[in-house]
Write a structure and sequence with these properties.
The chain is an alpha+beta fold and 316 residues long. It folds into two domains: 106 residues, no CATH class; 163 residues, Gcn5-related N-acetyltransferase (GNAT) (Aminopeptidase). The chain is built from eleven helices and 14 strands. A hairpin with a 4-residue loop joins strand 11 and strand 12. The longest helix is centred in the last third of the chain and has 18 residues.
Length: 316
């Protein structure tokens, strides 16, 4: 068997809204980012590639990474919905994805969401909120900036879009523009919420969804999810993916609006002795990944309280 060529180079990825230089390897037509401080891990991460494309041939990639001695300790990859049955014998853990299976808008409205979510959609209409698909233009960018700049924190942590200038926001919103859809919520000519959907081959990914804190009584988030479902049903997109299944109030919002927790296998393949040791000690996801779930919930709650005291949220 002829193995694909390997190219090692420096790449740039976005981490928390900032450009970060990192090592990368290109094998055949696919790029793998190398990350991690304890054990170097190669994975499809650049430009959400892990969500947008399947791995061509895991066995070939593993052989190339091992034979080329690229400094990678662990190779990490996952399957994508709806491909949830394990296909490989490598060590795996389960990754919980939040997704709405889309058949028709009426089926979603009548059978997949809670009565509370239906009432909120009616409330959006009652308040006269206009929900529509929207082209990216300067007015939309300015409206998004107003939403970004409400508070330096969101959901109990620092909000990395806060304080960005016009050109930065415009350029970031324009990423993957040819494969993206914007859904907006306007009340009396004021942007009070927006969603950016990135279209993949088998689903639409919610990459950004935000609202104005002072207009939450109008439930724009629910109205925008409803519009996203309507658009995907019309375009025959079978799933809307909200990335990972969330904890707390965020998770309750997902479940109320018809998102289901779909578990897909994520594989970790040790390539070196260091990788094997890290996997045995549970350090294959770094120190953060080794923290027990109960302690992680406590730490997140503590962080949220600290930020809420330092940066009280404004509601107007």
């Amino acid at each position: 068997m002829v193995l694909p060529d390997l190219i090692i180079y420096q790449d740039t990825i976005r981490v928390r809204g900032a450009n970060v230089a990192c090592d990368a390897v290109r094998i055949g037509s696919q790029t793998f980012i190398i990350s991690g401080s304890i054990a170097k891990t190669a994975s499809l991460e650049r430009d959400k590639a892990a969500w947008l494309e399947d791995l061509d041939d895991p066995a070939s990639v593993i052989r190339v990474l091992t034979d080329a001695r690229a400094g990678v300790d662990i190779f990490r990859f996952s399957q994508r919905i709806p491909d949830s049955q394990p296909k490989y014998s490598y060590y795996k853990e389960w990754r919980h994805v939040a997704a709405i299976p889309v058949s028709s808008y009426n089926n979603w409205l009548e059978k997949q969401i809670s009565s509370k979510a239906r009432n909120k959609i009616r409330k959006t209409q009652k308040f006269g909120v206009t929900i529509q698909e929207h082209k990216l233009n300067d007015d939309l960018v300015r409206g998004v900036m107003d939403i970004f700049n409400q508070s330096p924190t969101r959901r109990g942590k620092r909000f990395w879009h806060y304080g960005k200038d016009f050109e930065t926001v415009k350029n970031e919103l324009a990423l993957d523009l040819q494969d993206s859809i914007f859904v907006t919520a306007y009340h009396r000519n004021e942007l009070i919420g927006f969603v950016k959907l990135l279209l993949a081959d088998r689903y639409a990914i919610v990459t950004l969804i935000l609202d104005k804190l002072g207009h939450r009584d109008k439930a724009p988030m629910n109205g925008m999810i409803a519009k996203a479902v309507e658009i995907c049903a019309t375009r025959k997109v079978p799933y809307i993916v909200y990335m990972m299944w969330r904890r707390g109030g965020h998770g309750q919002f997902q479940e109320s609006n018809g998102f289901e927790k779909i578990s897909i296998p994520e594989y970790f393949v040790p390539l070196t002795l260091k990788g094997e040791i890290a996997l045995c000690l549970g350090l294959h996801k770094g120190l953060k990944g080794a923290i027990p779930e109960k302690m992680m919930v406590w730490l997140l709650s503590l962080r949220s309280k600290w930020y809420s005291m330092r940066y009280p949220e404004k509601t107007t």
